[in-house]
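Subject: Predicted fold for Xylanolytic transcriptional activator regulatory domain-containing protein, 578 residues

User T.R. writes:
Posting the sequence so we have a shared reference for the thread.
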Amino acid sequence: MEGQYIGPASGVSFLLRIQKRLRQAISVSQASSIFTFGDAPLQVPESDPSFCMMLPRADAQRLVDRYFDFAMPTYRFLHKPTIQSYFDEFYDTLGIMNGAQNVPAKVALLFMVFAQARVYMPDNDRPGPPDLSKRYFLAAEHHLSREKGSIRLASVQARLTQCYYLLTQSRINHCWSLFGTVSHLALAIGLNRNRPPDPNTGLSHIESECRRRTFWCAYTLDTYLSAALGRPRTFHDDDIDSALPACIEDEDLSNIDAEVLQSSNLAPSTMLASIAHMKLARIISKILGSLYSIKPVPPSIRAAAVEQVMKDLHGWRSEMTRFLDVDIYSTMFLVSIFQRQRNVLNLTYWHAIILTHRPFILSNLSRLSRASKDDPVQDDMQRENNLSECLNAAMETVNTINDITECRQLFRAFWITAYFAFNATIMLYIYVIQQCGSRSEVYSSYLAAATRCQSHIAAIAEKGSLSERYCLVLEELRVEALRQIQQFHQSELQLSGFSGESPNSSVQTRYTSMQNTHSVPQEFPHLEKENIFDLEGNMPGFTFPNDPGWEQFTNLLSSGLGNIDGLLSYDSVGNQVI
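User M.O. replies:
I've generated the C-alpha cells; pasting them so everyone works from the same file.
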C-alpha cells in the first residue's frame, strides 16, 4: 500500500528475498550486453559463422519434417512446400543457391528451421554434434547481416523464427530485443494491413496467406512476451486490419479456388488450431489491457471487464469443443501434431482463465481475516467464484502437464509450457497457504498436484534456465506451505491440550506424513531454514493494488536478476516506502 514502510513483514519482503535467492543461485556476467543481460548464457562454439556443417540430406530432411510435425504446432507461419523448395535448392547446389538478392534470407530461414526442429527432438535422436543448433543460429545471424535492398517477408520470418529459438534457450531478453526489430520490419512492409491476393501487383495467394500467418504469429508472441515480462505490447489492435489466415493446408494454398476449398474441406486441418491460437491471443491482449493496466481500474469497471472476458473465453471454447474435448483415443490424435495442438490450446485457455481471476485472488490475500464492510455476502460470492475459476484452471493445467510428462513428451524446449506450469503451481501453493488452518482434505490434493508439477519443471530445468528460476521460487512457496501447515496444527494441538506424543494427535501425524511425501529436493536443502512469510495469517508480496506488483514479480523472474527498485521509493531520510 502507498506509504507503507518496508520491513520484515511488509508486502515487498517476499520479492526482495526471491531476488536475493536468485542472485545467490544464478550467476550473470556483468559483461553481458544490455540487450541480453539476465539471460542464460549462449555458449558460442568456436567455428566460423559463415560456414555451417551440412548434415547428410536424409538427416536434414528429418529436421524439416520435425519442424512442421512437432516443433511448431500452432505457430504455423511458414509454408512447407516453400521451405521444402529452399531445402532442395540448398542441397542441390551444395549451399550456393540460385540468384543473389534473396539468398541470405532464404538460407537463414532454412538454418533456423534446422535449429528450431533439433531442440524439439529427443536427446538420443538429434543429428550432428551437441552444439549444432547454436551453430545454425549463428550461421543464420551471419547471413541476415549480409542482407541488402528492400525488406522481404522471408527476412521477417527468419528473425521471427530466431525469436522462438531464443525462448527455447531461456534467452527471453535477447528475444524481446530481437522482436523489436521483427515488429518494426513487419510494420514497415505492412503485415498489419489487409492485403488480399492481387495478380496485378504480383501478390500470390500463397504470399498473401503467409503474410497473414506471419503477422498473427508475431502478434501472439507479442502477447506472451508482454505477459511474461510485464511490459507494454508492441502491436496495438487499433492499428490492425489484417484478416486472420484461411483454414487451408499448405499443399492446397496454390489452388485458385482456395476459399471454396476452405468451406468444403471436412478433414481436420493443421491450421485450425493455429487460427484458434491467434483468436485466443486477441482475448489475452484484452485481459492484459483491461486487468493489468498501470492505471488504477475502478472495481465496477474491472468486474465488467472480467465478465466480458469470460464471455469471450467461453465463446472461444464452445467453438473449439469438438477439437479440444474429443476423446484422446480418437484416430485424429494418432497424428502427433494434433496432440501437440490440443495441449497448447488447452494450456493457453486455462492460463487465460488464471490471468483473468488472479488479480482478485492476490488482492484478497491480505483481507482474508476480515469481511467486506460494503456487501460481505456479495463480496464473498464473487471471491468464491474467482477462486473456483482460478483453482480449476490451475488444476487443469498441472494435470495436462502431468499427462504430457507421462507420455514422455515434455522437452526442455517447451518454454511456454514451463511458464504456464509455473503460474498454475504458484496459485495452488498460494491457496494451500491460505487454507493451512482448514482440514487437510481441503488443501491436500492441491498441494500434491502442485508438488508433482514442480517436480516435472525441475526435471527439465537446466543451469541458468528460466525453469531453474521457476523452481527456486516454487520451492520457497512449497516449503512455506508445509511450514505454515505444521505451525498451525502445532498451535491447534497446544490449544487442545495435546502434546506431540499424544495418541490423539492425528494432525501431527498427518503433517509428518505429508512432509515425507513432499520432501525437499537435494538441490534446495537450504530453503527450510528461513521463514519467508508473515506470521499474521497473511501472505505478503502479493497484495499490490490492481496487480502491478505481479508484473514486477514476473519481470524479476523472466528477465533475469533485474532490481525491483521500480516498486520502491524513498522518503527524506532514506527509508524505503511503497
